[in-house]
Specification:
This protein is mainly α. The chain folds into two domains: about 1-30; about 40-95. Helices cover about 75% and strands about 0% of the residues. The protein is flat. The chain starts with a helix and ends with a helix. The relative contact order is 0.07.
């Protein structure tokens, strides 16, 4: 019992330490919700891009359910690679 509580506290401390490191070492523009007009991450905050993210999120969720329904390793690898390809295609910003 004692070791389980110790492991839990250790994991809790490690999580918050990593969170602290993330906020102190990341560039400030990565944490901002309203970047400047000419900033290269501006596209992440547009409604069009957020809609694309929702599509990709639902795609990954449905494909993970499909893999859980048919748990064969070759099928899981194929579905994962195909879903990655589709995600990049959907989120692509090129004209």
């Amino acid at each position: 019992m004692q070791s389980g509580v110790y492991m839990l506290l250790k994991a809790f401390a490690a999580f918050y330490l990593s969170l602290y490191r993330q906020y102190t070492w990341q560039p400030i523009w990565l944490l901002s919700d309203t970047p400047e007009d000419h900033h290269f991450h501006r596209r992440r905050f547009t409604q069009k891009y957020r809609n694309k993210q929702k599509i990709v999120r639902s795609l990954w969720f449905s494909m993970s359910l499909l893999v859980l329904a048919f748990p064969a390793m070759p099928f899981a690898v194929f579905v994962t690679l195909f879903t990655t390809f589709l995600s990049f295609c959907i989120l692509d910003e090129t004209e």
